[in-house]
Specification:
CATH class: Alpha Beta
Structural class: alpha/beta
Strand content: 15-25%
Strand order of the largest sheet: 1-9-8-5-4-2-3-15
Number of strands: 16
Radius of gyration: 21 Å
CATH topology: Aspartate Aminotransferase, domain 2
Helix content: 25-40%
Largest sheet: 8 strands, mixed
Protein backbone atom coordinates (compact mmCIF):
# COMPACT_ATOMS: atom_id res chain seq x y z
CA UNK A 1 0.00 0.00 0.00
CA UNK A 2 1.34 3.44 -0.94
CA UNK A 3 1.71 5.98 1.86
CA UNK A 4 2.20 9.69 1.06
CA UNK A 5 4.77 11.81 2.87
CA UNK A 6 1.96 14.21 3.73
CA UNK A 7 -1.76 14.20 2.94
CA UNK A 8 -3.61 17.51 3.11
CA UNK A 9 -6.99 15.92 2.36
CA UNK A 10 -7.66 14.45 5.82
CA UNK A 11 -10.51 16.86 6.48
CA UNK A 12 -12.65 16.60 9.59
CA UNK A 13 -16.34 15.79 9.01
CA UNK A 14 -18.18 18.90 7.92
CA UNK A 15 -15.09 21.05 7.28
CA UNK A 16 -15.38 21.03 3.49
CA UNK A 17 -19.07 21.89 3.65
CA UNK A 18 -18.36 24.72 6.07
CA UNK A 19 -15.58 26.03 3.83
CA UNK A 20 -17.72 25.89 0.70
CA UNK A 21 -20.47 27.79 2.51
CA UNK A 22 -17.98 30.36 3.79
CA UNK A 23 -16.59 30.96 0.29
CA UNK A 24 -20.13 31.39 -1.01
CA UNK A 25 -20.92 33.96 1.67
CA UNK A 26 -17.70 35.94 1.24
CA UNK A 27 -18.07 35.93 -2.53
CA UNK A 28 -21.68 37.06 -2.40
CA UNK A 29 -20.66 40.00 -0.21
CA UNK A 30 -17.34 40.61 -2.04
CA UNK A 31 -15.49 40.39 1.27
CA UNK A 32 -12.02 39.65 -0.05
CA UNK A 33 -9.71 41.90 1.99
CA UNK A 34 -9.75 42.70 5.70
CA UNK A 35 -12.95 42.62 7.70
CA UNK A 36 -14.24 40.44 10.54
CA UNK A 37 -12.49 37.23 9.42
CA UNK A 38 -9.03 38.84 9.58
CA UNK A 39 -9.85 40.56 12.88
CA UNK A 40 -11.10 37.29 14.37
CA UNK A 41 -8.02 35.40 13.26
CA UNK A 42 -5.60 37.94 14.70
CA UNK A 43 -7.52 38.02 17.98
CA UNK A 44 -7.36 34.21 18.26
CA UNK A 45 -3.66 34.12 17.41
CA UNK A 46 -2.67 36.66 20.05
CA UNK A 47 -4.78 34.97 22.74
CA UNK A 48 -3.66 31.41 21.96
CA UNK A 49 0.00 32.42 21.78
CA UNK A 50 0.06 34.78 24.77
CA UNK A 51 1.26 37.87 22.89
CA UNK A 52 -0.07 41.41 22.78
CA UNK A 53 -0.23 41.61 18.98
CA UNK A 54 -0.76 39.23 16.07
CA UNK A 55 -0.46 40.78 12.62
CA UNK A 56 -1.47 38.80 9.56
CA UNK A 57 0.55 39.08 6.36
CA UNK A 58 0.82 37.50 2.92
CA UNK A 59 3.22 34.63 3.74
CA UNK A 60 5.87 33.38 6.14
CA UNK A 61 8.77 34.89 4.18
CA UNK A 62 7.18 38.32 4.28
CA UNK A 63 6.67 37.84 8.02
CA UNK A 64 10.43 37.56 8.53
CA UNK A 65 11.13 40.57 6.32
CA UNK A 66 8.48 42.61 8.15
CA UNK A 67 9.99 41.67 11.52
CA UNK A 68 13.46 42.64 10.29
CA UNK A 69 12.32 45.93 8.80
CA UNK A 70 10.23 46.76 11.88
CA UNK A 71 13.40 46.29 13.96
CA UNK A 72 15.14 48.76 11.63
CA UNK A 73 17.47 46.15 10.13
CA UNK A 74 18.86 47.24 6.77
CA UNK A 75 21.89 48.10 4.71
CA UNK A 76 25.20 47.56 6.50
CA UNK A 77 23.68 45.54 9.37
CA UNK A 78 24.92 42.04 10.16
CA UNK A 79 22.35 39.35 10.94
CA UNK A 80 23.14 35.84 12.24
CA UNK A 81 21.14 32.91 10.82
CA UNK A 82 21.46 29.14 11.31
CA UNK A 83 23.25 27.22 8.57
CA UNK A 84 20.45 24.65 8.54
CA UNK A 85 17.11 26.27 7.73
CA UNK A 86 14.76 26.88 4.84
CA UNK A 87 16.17 29.32 2.30
CA UNK A 88 13.59 31.99 3.19
CA UNK A 89 15.41 32.77 6.46
CA UNK A 90 18.61 33.71 4.62
CA UNK A 91 16.69 35.27 1.75
CA UNK A 92 14.77 37.62 4.04
CA UNK A 93 18.02 39.05 5.42
CA UNK A 94 19.31 39.71 1.91
CA UNK A 95 15.99 41.22 0.83
CA UNK A 96 16.23 43.90 3.54
CA UNK A 97 19.79 44.65 2.32
CA UNK A 98 21.50 43.29 5.46
CA UNK A 99 24.52 40.96 5.56
CA UNK A 100 23.92 37.35 6.69
CA UNK A 101 26.40 35.32 8.73
CA UNK A 102 25.57 31.62 9.02
CA UNK A 103 26.08 29.79 12.32
CA UNK A 104 26.40 26.01 12.53
CA UNK A 105 23.90 23.82 14.41
CA UNK A 106 24.07 21.61 17.47
CA UNK A 107 23.86 17.87 16.78
CA UNK A 108 21.63 17.16 19.76
CA UNK A 109 18.64 19.41 19.09
CA UNK A 110 19.47 20.31 15.42
CA UNK A 111 19.02 24.02 16.17
CA UNK A 112 21.55 26.88 16.01
CA UNK A 113 24.49 26.09 18.30
CA UNK A 114 24.41 28.36 21.36
CA UNK A 115 28.17 28.50 21.99
CA UNK A 116 28.85 29.33 18.35
CA UNK A 117 26.12 31.96 18.48
CA UNK A 118 27.87 33.64 21.42
CA UNK A 119 31.18 33.42 19.54
CA UNK A 120 29.61 35.00 16.45
CA UNK A 121 28.04 37.82 18.48
CA UNK A 122 31.42 38.63 20.02
CA UNK A 123 33.25 38.51 16.69
CA UNK A 124 30.79 40.19 14.31
CA UNK A 125 28.76 42.47 16.60
CA UNK A 126 25.49 41.79 14.72
CA UNK A 127 22.53 44.09 15.04
CA UNK A 128 20.14 41.14 14.87
CA UNK A 129 19.91 37.37 14.73
CA UNK A 130 17.22 34.98 13.53
CA UNK A 131 16.72 31.92 15.70
CA UNK A 132 14.75 29.28 13.77
CA UNK A 133 12.55 26.77 15.61
CA UNK A 134 12.87 23.72 13.38
CA UNK A 135 11.07 20.38 13.19
CA UNK A 136 8.23 21.24 15.58
CA UNK A 137 10.33 22.15 18.61
CA UNK A 138 13.14 24.59 19.41
CA UNK A 139 16.55 25.00 20.97
CA UNK A 140 17.36 23.40 24.31
CA UNK A 141 19.06 26.74 25.07
CA UNK A 142 16.15 28.99 24.10
CA UNK A 143 16.16 30.93 27.38
CA UNK A 144 19.93 31.38 27.11
CA UNK A 145 19.64 32.68 23.54
CA UNK A 146 17.09 35.28 24.59
CA UNK A 147 19.08 36.34 27.65
CA UNK A 148 22.44 36.61 25.86
CA UNK A 149 20.93 38.48 22.93
CA UNK A 150 19.29 41.02 25.23
CA UNK A 151 22.47 41.52 27.27
CA UNK A 152 24.45 42.14 24.09
CA UNK A 153 21.90 44.40 22.34
CA UNK A 154 21.20 41.86 19.61
CA UNK A 155 17.63 41.99 18.31
CA UNK A 156 16.53 38.35 18.35
CA UNK A 157 13.85 37.53 15.79
CA UNK A 158 12.42 34.01 16.04
CA UNK A 159 11.38 32.20 12.88
CA UNK A 160 8.54 30.02 14.12
CA UNK A 161 7.27 28.88 10.72
CA UNK A 162 7.27 25.24 11.85
CA UNK A 163 6.37 25.69 15.50
CA UNK A 164 2.71 26.66 15.75
CA UNK A 165 1.26 24.98 18.84
CA UNK A 166 4.67 24.26 20.40
CA UNK A 167 5.02 25.02 24.10
CA UNK A 168 8.24 25.69 26.01
CA UNK A 169 8.20 25.40 29.79
CA UNK A 170 4.42 25.39 29.72
CA UNK A 171 3.99 28.52 27.60
CA UNK A 172 3.63 29.23 23.91
CA UNK A 173 7.05 29.27 22.28
CA UNK A 174 6.11 32.65 20.82
CA UNK A 175 5.22 34.30 24.15
CA UNK A 176 8.55 35.72 25.30
CA UNK A 177 10.06 36.50 21.92
CA UNK A 178 10.83 40.09 20.90
CA UNK A 179 9.09 39.16 17.66
CA UNK A 180 8.34 35.83 16.06
CA UNK A 181 6.98 34.77 12.70
CA UNK A 182 4.55 32.14 11.48
CA UNK A 183 3.99 30.52 8.11
CA UNK A 184 0.52 29.22 7.29
CA UNK A 185 1.66 27.43 4.13
CA UNK A 186 -0.81 24.56 3.60
CA UNK A 187 1.65 21.83 4.68
CA UNK A 188 2.22 23.41 8.10
CA UNK A 189 0.55 22.08 11.25
CA UNK A 190 -1.85 25.02 10.99
CA UNK A 191 -2.14 25.55 7.26
CA UNK A 192 -4.19 27.91 5.12
CA UNK A 193 -5.72 27.30 1.67
CA UNK A 194 -2.77 29.13 0.12
CA UNK A 195 0.00 31.44 1.26
CA UNK A 196 -0.40 33.36 4.51
CA UNK A 197 1.70 34.32 7.52
CA UNK A 198 1.81 36.40 10.68
CA UNK A 199 4.12 38.34 12.98
CA UNK A 200 3.63 37.98 16.74
CA UNK A 201 5.03 40.48 19.24
CA UNK A 202 4.26 42.26 22.49
CA UNK A 203 6.35 45.29 21.51
CA UNK A 204 4.14 48.29 20.66
CA UNK A 205 6.61 49.96 18.29
CA UNK A 206 7.37 46.77 16.35
CA UNK A 207 3.66 45.99 15.99
CA UNK A 208 2.85 49.47 14.71
CA UNK A 209 5.70 49.31 12.19
CA UNK A 210 4.79 45.81 10.96
CA UNK A 211 1.18 46.85 10.41
CA UNK A 212 2.26 49.92 8.43
CA UNK A 213 5.01 48.27 6.36
CA UNK A 214 2.74 45.43 5.26
CA UNK A 215 0.21 47.98 3.99
CA UNK A 216 2.44 50.18 1.81
CA UNK A 217 3.87 52.10 4.76
CA UNK A 218 0.52 53.75 5.40
CA UNK A 219 -0.19 56.10 8.26
CA UNK A 220 -3.56 56.95 6.69
CA UNK A 221 -5.12 55.82 3.42
CA UNK A 222 -3.13 58.22 1.24
CA UNK A 223 -0.46 59.14 3.78
CA UNK A 224 2.69 57.00 3.63
CA UNK A 225 5.19 57.36 6.44
CA UNK A 226 7.60 54.80 5.03
CA UNK A 227 8.21 52.66 1.97
CA UNK A 228 6.62 49.30 2.61
CA UNK A 229 4.93 46.86 0.27
CA UNK A 230 1.69 44.93 -0.08
CA UNK A 231 1.70 42.03 2.36
CA UNK A 232 -1.87 41.90 3.59
CA UNK A 233 -3.43 38.56 4.52
CA UNK A 234 -6.57 38.14 2.43
CA UNK A 235 -9.99 37.39 3.86
CA UNK A 236 -10.27 33.95 2.25
CA UNK A 237 -7.08 32.73 3.94
CA UNK A 238 -8.15 34.17 7.27
CA UNK A 239 -11.56 32.49 6.95
CA UNK A 240 -10.00 29.12 6.18
CA UNK A 241 -7.63 29.42 9.13
CA UNK A 242 -10.54 30.34 11.42
CA UNK A 243 -12.28 27.11 10.39
CA UNK A 244 -9.06 25.08 10.75
CA UNK A 245 -8.41 26.46 14.24
CA UNK A 246 -11.62 24.82 15.44
CA UNK A 247 -9.99 21.45 14.73
CA UNK A 248 -6.40 22.37 15.52
CA UNK A 249 -6.12 20.60 18.88
CA UNK A 250 -7.26 17.25 17.44
CA UNK A 251 -5.00 17.62 14.40
CA UNK A 252 -1.99 18.35 16.57
CA UNK A 253 -2.82 15.52 18.98
CA UNK A 254 -2.94 13.11 16.04
CA UNK A 255 0.47 14.31 14.83
CA UNK A 256 1.97 14.14 18.32
CA UNK A 257 0.73 10.57 18.84
CA UNK A 258 2.24 9.42 15.54
CA UNK A 259 5.54 11.17 16.27
CA UNK A 260 5.76 9.38 19.63
CA UNK A 261 4.91 6.01 18.06
CA UNK A 262 7.73 6.47 15.58
CA UNK A 263 10.25 7.22 18.33
CA UNK A 264 9.11 4.32 20.51
CA UNK A 265 9.20 1.73 17.73
CA UNK A 266 12.22 2.98 15.78
CA UNK A 267 14.41 3.07 18.89
CA UNK A 268 13.79 -0.66 19.33
CA UNK A 269 14.96 -1.12 15.73
CA UNK A 270 18.22 0.75 16.45
CA UNK A 271 17.18 3.63 14.20
CA UNK A 272 18.24 6.97 15.60
CA UNK A 273 15.40 9.44 16.06
CA UNK A 274 15.62 13.01 17.34
CA UNK A 275 13.25 14.07 20.12
CA UNK A 276 12.33 17.53 21.42
CA UNK A 277 14.61 18.82 24.19
CA UNK A 278 13.44 18.83 27.79
CA UNK A 279 10.83 21.49 28.48
CA UNK A 280 9.15 21.25 25.07
CA UNK A 281 5.85 19.84 23.94
CA UNK A 282 6.25 19.38 20.19
CA UNK A 283 3.53 19.89 17.59
CA UNK A 284 4.34 16.74 15.59
CA UNK A 285 5.41 18.67 12.51
CA UNK A 286 8.15 16.31 11.35
CA UNK A 287 9.56 12.92 12.11
CA UNK A 288 13.38 13.11 12.17
CA UNK A 289 15.59 10.04 11.77
CA UNK A 290 19.37 10.01 11.34
CA UNK A 291 21.33 7.47 9.26
CA UNK A 292 24.76 6.84 7.83
CA UNK A 293 24.80 8.32 4.32
CA UNK A 294 25.08 4.95 2.54
CA UNK A 295 22.35 3.44 4.68
CA UNK A 296 20.07 6.38 3.96
CA UNK A 297 20.42 5.82 0.23
CA UNK A 298 19.42 2.19 0.69
CA UNK A 299 16.37 3.18 2.75
CA UNK A 300 15.34 5.81 0.19
CA UNK A 301 15.32 3.14 -2.51
CA UNK A 302 13.31 0.69 -0.40
CA UNK A 303 10.73 3.32 0.53
CA UNK A 304 10.52 4.58 -3.04
CA UNK A 305 10.02 1.08 -4.44
CA UNK A 306 7.15 0.52 -2.01
CA UNK A 307 5.47 3.84 -2.80
CA UNK A 308 6.16 5.31 0.63
CA UNK A 309 6.87 9.03 0.68
CA UNK A 310 9.76 10.57 2.59
CA UNK A 311 11.48 13.91 2.96
CA UNK A 312 14.97 15.27 3.46
CA UNK A 313 14.64 18.48 5.47
CA UNK A 314 17.04 19.99 4.47
CA UNK A 315 19.27 18.57 1.70
CA UNK A 316 22.10 21.09 2.07
CA UNK A 317 23.49 23.85 4.30
CA UNK A 318 22.42 27.40 3.52
CA UNK A 319 26.06 28.45 3.19
CA UNK A 320 26.56 26.01 0.31
CA UNK A 321 23.57 27.14 -1.75
CA UNK A 322 24.59 28.66 -5.07
CA UNK A 323 22.54 31.77 -4.34
CA UNK A 324 24.37 32.42 -1.06
CA UNK A 325 27.80 33.08 -2.52
CA UNK A 326 27.20 36.71 -3.51
CA UNK A 327 25.70 37.70 -0.15
CA UNK A 328 27.10 35.63 2.73
CA UNK A 329 29.40 37.64 4.97
CA UNK A 330 30.89 34.73 6.90
CA UNK A 331 30.29 31.21 8.16
CA UNK A 332 30.78 30.34 11.83
CA UNK A 333 31.38 26.80 13.06
CA UNK A 334 32.04 23.42 11.59
CA UNK A 335 30.15 21.00 9.38
CA UNK A 336 27.20 19.84 11.49
CA UNK A 337 24.69 21.36 9.07
CA UNK A 338 26.36 19.43 6.26
CA UNK A 339 26.37 16.25 8.36
CA UNK A 340 22.64 16.66 9.00
CA UNK A 341 21.85 17.22 5.33
CA UNK A 342 23.63 13.96 4.49
CA UNK A 343 22.03 11.99 7.34
CA UNK A 344 18.44 13.13 7.88
CA UNK A 345 15.42 11.22 6.60
CA UNK A 346 11.86 12.27 7.40
CA UNK A 347 9.14 9.62 7.37
CA UNK A 348 5.43 10.18 6.60
CA UNK A 349 3.65 12.21 9.28
CA UNK A 350 0.33 14.00 8.89
CA UNK A 351 -2.99 14.39 10.74
CA UNK A 352 -5.12 11.27 11.11
CA UNK A 353 -2.52 8.92 9.65
CA UNK A 354 -4.08 5.46 9.95
CA UNK A 355 -2.62 2.50 11.84
CA UNK A 356 -2.36 0.55 8.58
CA UNK A 357 -0.41 3.37 6.93
CA UNK A 358 1.92 3.59 9.92
CA UNK A 359 2.40 -0.19 9.96
CA UNK A 360 3.24 -0.11 6.24
CA UNK A 361 6.07 2.35 6.88
CA UNK A 362 7.45 0.29 9.76
CA UNK A 363 7.19 -2.90 7.71
CA UNK A 364 9.23 -1.32 4.91
CA UNK A 365 11.90 -0.18 7.36
CA UNK A 366 12.12 -3.64 8.89
Amino acid sequence: MAVPFIDLKRFEPGLQDAWNQKVKELSANTQFMGGPEVNSLEETLLKDNQTKYALGCANGTDAIQLALRASEIGRGDTVLVPDSTFWATFEAVVNVSADPVTVDINRNDLQMDYDLFCEAVTKFKPKAAILVHLYGWGSAKLSDFRKFAKENNVLLIEDGAQSYGVTYKGESIYKNALSSTISFYPAKVLGAAGDAGAVLTSNDAIAEKVRSLGNHGREAHYAHGSVGWNSRIDTMQAAYLNLALKHFSSRMKSRQDTAKKYRDILSSMNIMTVAPPEGYVENGYLNVTIHEASRREELKKILGDKGIGFGIVYPGPVSEQKGASDYIKAKVGGENAKWLSESVLNLPLFPYMTDSEFDEVISALK
